[in-house]
Each structure stands twice: as structure tokens, then as C-alpha cells.
Amino acid sequence: MIEWLKKFLGTPPSSSTAKERLRLVLMTDHLALAPEIIENMKRDLVDVISRYVEVDREKLEIEFEREDRALALMASIPIISVNRPSGGDGEKPAVKERVEDAQTAAVPGSAAPSVNATPGEPPKRRRRKKTSSKPATAH
Amino acid sequence: MHELQPMDAQTPAAAPVKLGRAIVVTSGKGGVGKTTTTANLGTALAKRGARVALVDADVGLRNLDIVMGLESRVKYHVLDVLDEQVTLEEALVPDKHSENLVLLAAAQSREKDDVDTEKMRALVQRLREKFDYVLIDCPAGIEMGFKNAVVGADEAIVVCTPEVSAVRDVDRVVGLLGNRFKPQLIINRLRPQLVRKGKMLSVDDVNAILRLPLLGVIADEPEIIVTTNKGEPLALRDDGTTAAAYHAIAARIAGEDVPAPTVEVKESFFDKLGAMFGGRRA
Questions:
Q1: Taking CA atoms, which of A78, A84, B214, B271 is between 20 and 30 Å from B206?
Q2: Distance (Å, rounded) from C-alpha B39 to C-alpha B45?
Q3: B59-98: pLDDT as tens digits
Q4: Which CATH number goes with the domain that contains B47?
């Protein structure tokens, strides 16, 4: 019965698979063909993060990774120093804590701070930003 | 149908020449039906009374002549003209059916790199002075042949089949064409029954990705193969859905307000039976 139902409801139509694969591959193609967009994004990204922590602009790395059904932006942004928390929000405190090792966590779990600031999560190697919406799930 | 102007006709100095439209038919990927599309659109536009020149820009892989059934009439080719071996007028092959349709064949024994891009631009410009439409059949690929086919054009038609490879390549070609063109899309070789079963990308699927103005949809019909075998473009006919689809595209190119293209699904008995029991779309 289960088998029959499975057969009847079927796997997702292959045209949906085609659509999904095309969507992903074209995103990758477009990014690969637009280096200036990546450069602009790098600059903007650093500008935003620099409002909170001091980062090493020169060592910023960005790459795109194809995951199962999504494209992910992976950014590695070395932090040079972090502002000491002062309780005030948004305001920049005068004292800065100097971080000795400016390298980001190239190795997961190393002591160097990374921009990954999601509370309650184990330190990730890189901050992730999903650039794609959740793909339509097929049944 | 109006008479074709003699090529050496003097244009009155006072009246500026109204230039025809130079449209490149391109796709990136090979085998999607560029040449067949060019032949049929040329035929359909000529049937409407327009003066049409077809240019085969696929140097080294000449084919528009055979699809048009003009292969035995070709004496000179585009490179003979560019190299000034013969005049443009001598190289233009008149069509068998329409007196206002001509073909400029590609050179068969030469290479795409032999074409001088600037000379090609000038050649298309000369044709635009004499014809209402110059349809340029672009070779596959995005190298020199593509550049030479595109250089003289001011409009582009991209031909895409509902396949991932063709869609991806059209996307790339549209990117390469840049802002100078506003490419319009023809979806070719659509198989409505497969679309209905979810086994082929639909017109909407393709255009959700490409987002181009849709000029028309041509179904994958055996009669296209048969007419190509014979060298008599399907658009010569007045009847039949596929011929009508080509005529609708020609009308749309000419600026007529033609209803949006639709593709009928011819449902077989078993399709109907299947639809009655569950309507599976997998």
C-alpha cells in the first residue's frame, strides 16, 4: 500500500528538479561573472561590521559554496580588536581591547575571535549568510 | 507583395534612407533551432510583403542555404563580399518562393576568424539600406563568430529549448549582448505533453528564469523536420498551428499586437483516462 501510494504521489517531477538546478547554477554563474559586485559587497560588508569591531580589511575572504539545495555566502573576516562592552548600545566606547592574534579562526575552535556572534551556538568557522530563499520542498 | 527595388537604384539625395532592422538570431548553445527559426521567420516576414535579407554568419558551417532549399543557387558567400571579390548584389541569392527574400550564404571553406568584424558591421549596414529586415543567423558559441554576427545587429532574438543547458546558455548570451539589445525570446521545440506531465520545463518555468519578452513558442512538431528535409520552410504554408506560430512571431516582430503565444496540448485518449483517475502530474 505504501509503495503504491509512493508510486502514485510520485517523486517530484523532473521539471522541478531542472528548475531548481538552473536557479542555483545561474546564481553561481552570475556571481562568477561579476567580480565588481563581489568587491562592492566586500567593501559594504566590512563597513557594516567595522561599526562594531575592528577588522582586517586586507585579509577579508569571501566565497560562495553550493550546498545541497542552496547557495551560501561564506565570509572570513579577521578581527583586530573588539570594543569592550559598556552596556550602552551602539555607542563606541573609548577603550579597545587589543587582540593579539589577528587571524580569524582558520581552525575551528581556535581562541581567536570570529565574527560569528550567534549566541548559544558553538563557534563556527565562518559566518554564513544564506543568499537564497528556502527552496520549495517537494513531497 | 511589392517589387524588390533594384540594388543599384539611386536614392534621391534629399530623402534620407530609412534603415531596415538588423536582427541577430542567437542562442549560445548549438542545435536549438537557430537556423530553422531564421529561415521560417525570414519566410514569414517576406510573405507579409517585407523585403528581407537572410545572412548566414556561421562561417565554416554553412547551413541556412540548405534549410532554405537554396544550396544549389549559392555561388558566392559573405567572405567573397567582405574581401571584395564580388559585389554584394552578386552574392545575394534570391529565394525560390518570395521575390523579396534573399540569402547571403556563409563561406564554407573558411574560418570564423577570417571575418573582419568592422567589415561585417559595414556589410550589415549596407543591407539595412536595402531591406526592411536583415536576419542574421548566428553560429553557436560566444567566440569570434558570435561577435561578428552580433556586431551589425541592433536587435536580438534568442532561441531557447526547454532544457537546462539551453536556458543556461541563453542566460549567458543575454549577458554578453549587454544593454544595447533588448533580446526577445522564442521558446523552440516545446513538447506540451511532456510539460503537462512535469517532465519538461514549461514556458513559464523558462521565462521565470530568463525574464525576457516572449516573442513566441514553437512546439516540437515532426512537420518541421519534414519541411527542413525538403528545404521548404514551414512558414511557406498558411495552414497548421506551427506555421501559424511562425506567422504570429513575424507579426509581432512587425509590431502588430498579437495575442500571447499559447501551445495547445493534444490530449490522447490515455491522457484523458489518466486525468480521470487521479490526475498524476509526476
A1: B271
A2: 10
A3: 999 999 999 999 999 999 999 999 999 999 999 999 999 9
A4: 3.40.50.300
